[in-house]
Structures are given as structure tokens and as C-alpha cells.
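Working notes for the structural subgroup meeting. M.R. asked for a predicted model of this chain before we commit to crystallization trials. I am recording the input and output together here so anyone reviewing the notebook later can reproduce the run.

Input as submitted:
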Amino acid sequence: GALLLRSRVELAQGDHERAIDLARRAVVRSEGNRDTGIFLHNLAATLSMWGVADEAAEVHALALQHELSPVQRHVARASLALRDASQEGDLKEIARFLGELAGEQERAGFRRYAAISRLNLSGVHLWIGDGNAGRQEAARAEALLGGTGSNSLERVTATTMKAVALAQMGRLDEARLVMPKPGQLASTQIVEVGLETARMELEFGSTEAAALALPSMDPDAYSRSHQGIHYLLAGEIAFRLGDHDRAAQMLQALSRVGCADAAGKLREAILRTRMSLWGDSSNVAALAAEAVRIAAAQNTPRGQYTIADGFTVTGFAKGAAMIGP
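Returned structure, recorded in C-alpha cell form:
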């Protein structure tokens, strides 16, 4: 128990590596005890907060084989759903599961966990291409988290997702008003909002506005998941501005941390294909085929449109034709 408490203290103080180490040691000491599930759950939650999503999901799967409270079981199931959403599965099926899970959590009175499930459901809807559903789920998550009067990271994230949804619906000016302002935020929230604003501007506004919105902090200070988002956005922005050397540097950095979400994986594949077309085109066919494969696995019209548009813009008509109309 002492190691578990110490890991939580270290996590609260921002020392994620120390927190993870203590959480791992707590699991080892608990082996064979009836509380093993609790210690596994703590390790998984700690890994998740530092952005190590794949391992967190694996540990949550182990935790589900042990005794857990109803709340902990809901969290573990949500973690597994998010792992699936971050990979290459059918996003429509994942959206269905997240909606059912959120409903169960609300009926059980687990408002915060229901909010997080709806927040992640919003992100899946946005990638599927249903901006209105994404906006509705983000608004429901925001309300469950206490509304705009709450300063929690989750609530701020819900508000940013609502803004992105509005932009996707063609209401960019309104989205910019809804997006939280940096002066009202803590440092971790500034990173979250800055990255989402940059993504919104890159997709629905201008490349110049996206470049201005991208946080200027050292990405090494971010969580691992935020690092991946930063490097991907920075690479996309650099490519659009014609700075191909910078784009290549960002892709190299991205290779170390990876993308934690399904949309990011496809966008990374498209950027690598574009960079190959610009430079060494010897492996462009293989890169394009990989992007097409990911888009097909995700089964989303928006993903297919994104890849077709990406290939058409770069002149790789064959890649666009590979996925059909």
C-alpha cells in the first residue's frame, strides 16, 4: 500500500517516471494477493496519464482478470476501447461501444468516467466525419464535468473538442470564440488547447494561423501522447510552408514516440507519402499502400476523403484511385 500511495504522490507532483517505477514495484509486491487488481489498475492509470496508452491498455486487461471495484472496471473497459480507437479498427464499431459504455456509466452514477467516455466518443465521431454528433458528445461531456465553470483538464479538453466540431461544421468563427483562451489556463491545459487550436486552424483555417497557435514549449516537457501530436502538426505545417527539411526532422522525432490516435496514424502515413514524393520517391508506392490500408481498416468516409485529397494534391493520382470514389 505504501508504494501505491507514493506513486500517486509522485504523479501529483509531476514526476511521471518515478510514479511509474513505484507503481510497477507495487504490482510486483502484490502478486498473489487479492488486491493485485487494484495495484494493476493504479499502474495502468499512471501509464495512461503519461501517454503510454498501449501498455496501459495491456495492464488494464490484466487488471480485469482480478478483483476490482465497479468504477475501476468501467475505467479498465474504457481504456481498452481507447486502445482499439487508437489503432486501426472499425471506428464506427468503436463509437457504438463507447456510446454504450458512457450510458452504463451515467446510469451507475459515474459522471466523470461517463464524461471521459463521451469525450473520446466525440473524437471518434469527428474522425468519422459527423461533426454534429461530435459537438453533441463534447457538450454532454462538458456538462458532466461541471460546465465552463470547471477548470479541470478534462473539461477544457471537452470545450476544445466542441470548438473543433463547430469548425468541422463550417462555423470557424464561432469555433474560435468557443476555444478556451490561454490566459485562463494552467500550463498543461495551454499545451492541450494550443495543439487542438493548431490542428483546427490547419484543417479548417490557414497554415499561418496553425503555425502561430502551435505551442512554443519544448515538446520533451509534454506527455508522450502530446509529443506525437506536436511533431505531426509541426511536420504538416512545415511541409505546407515548403520547409521540407523541418518536416523531415519532425517525422524523425515522430518515429520515436508515435501517434496515439487513429486520425494521427493516417495523417502521418499521408505526410510520409508526400515527403517521399518530394524527395526520394523510390518507396512512394509502399508508403501510399500503407496509408490506403489504414484508411480502409478505419472504415470512415472522412478518412477516405482525406487520403484521396492528400494524394491528389501531391499529384499521386494512382493513390487516390486505389480507394475508389
